Amino acid sequence: MTNKPYYFQLFYCLLLGFLASFGFAPFHFFFITILSYFLLLKIIHSGKDPKKAIFLGFIFSSSHNFTSLYWIAISFETGNYGGIFLGLAAVFFLSLVLAIIFSIACFFINKFCKNDFSYKSLIKILFMLSVAEWIKGNMLWGFPWMPISAIWAFNEIFLYPFSVLGTWGYCLITYSLIIAFLCLREGVKKIFIFSLPFSCVLFLKVISPPALIDKNKSINIRLVQPNIKQEEKWDKSKLEFNHKKILNLIALPGKKKKSLIILPETAIPFYLDKDKNKNKYLNEILKNNEIVIVGALRKEQNKNKINIFNSMFIFQKEKNYNSFHDKVKLVPFGEFIPFNKIFSFIKITAGYQDFSSGREMKVIQINEKIRILPLICYEVIFPDLYKKEKKFDIAINITNDAWYRESIGPYQHFAHSRIRAVKEGVPLIRVANTGISAIIDAKGKVSSKLNLNETGVIDKKLQIKEINTIYSNFKDSIFFVAILTLLIYGFFSDKV
User: Fold this and answer.
1) CA 475 from centre of chain
2) Positive or negative: CA dihedral 241, 245, 250, 253
3) How far apart are CA 350 and CA 298, in angstroms?
4) Cβ count within 10 A of residue 244
5) Pairing state of beta strands 323-326 and 305-316?
6) DSSP 3-state of 469
7) Number of H helices and number of E strands within the chain?
8) Residue 353 burial (C-beta neighbours within 10 Å; 0-12, 13-18, 19+)
9) Which of 149, 152, 26, 160 is nearest to 444 (CA)?
10) What is the pLDDT of residues 193-250, one digit of tens each?
11) Cβ atoms of 24 and 91 closer than 8 Å
12) Percentages of the chain per state (helix, strand, coil), in multiples of 5
């Protein structure tokens, strides 16, 4: 391939980037992603010019990002702001920015490791790819949406390493597996060594499967998926119809006594306050239900400024809300405008004012026994937001993926919810406006699910069972220790 014309190499890398996206949800053809990265790495590693390597890596990553994230553009059309073409332009720009870090890694791989298959050189490649993945997911406001480890979020066996290594540690052993393929002509020993980390973690799952710990707690729950289109959600002429639709779903037969009712993000499309006259709809919801979790907007007067929050409320019958959680991690250009003096013309959600960020993640007590970790929308992909020792029984993620219609976006979001459940080792309840709503156990198994664009409810008596995962205790410490070890061995040790 290195002997091919440069324009052919560019097209080849563009194609590989496109194919790499098929390893992620909803396709899960993980072997295509592994093969695509291997073929790219083979070109970069054997290339003659570091400047060409950086551009080839940039083309690959840009293509991969754009193909994987095109669905973001749909929200521009859904929100009636600039249409699909402005949305595609925004995604194209985002793809280019995300590609910069990976392309720099490709430059250094070619410059320092060109055609070198020594252990020291291969370790350098592993270090640079893993660090680039971490930087890409954490730079600026953080966007750990498409780490390579997400290709494994399709069953319990391959989800297991998240409970040990987290997202970035799993990226590291995935890249190690790809490097093993790079060593196909270098003998069995190197293939074995670089595939060993991946194999060992999966083997650990087989020989010592994590045991579910029964906490002797249970709760009756009803998940409500109203399936209201985003274009109709804020339409005042359809407000009453949407209210009745939700009330009818809540009142469907089959609900157990004292059930926890969970509604999606911004299920109530107006501000909630303490004035019951303004919240007749809320009172109707609470009429025959003990406790309700619902997403809505919250307004707070702060001196001369009014702050608006995207919030999760926990209400009890005939009482004001016990608690609320204000969304801490806001969506750039959706809920706030970064560098707003420059990009003030780009904002997808309605309203002239940015949302305010919540102060902190906090565990909320919903009855005398059950404690929940509230997660709104894509807060589910940021485990570092909650920094305290784990003291919650369930994670509850309310979201509204109606922005992205029938695209691959909601499926990717759902895959990240499974990853988060496995990391924390607790059941995760996901309630989405148009889907995908589900109950996910501590191993990542989906016990009940409502598909995309399906209207309905899920009723279940949830037995609280958890796993004391390595990741929930140590977070990303294992990854950082591994990275430090690779750095010392690859760059500061004697030649091997």
Assistant:
1) 16
2) positive
3) 15
4) 12
5) antiparallel
6) coil
7) 15, 13
8) exposed
9) 160
10) 999 999 999 998 888 888 899 999 999 999 999 999 988 888 888 888 998 999 999 9
11) no
12) 50, 20, 30
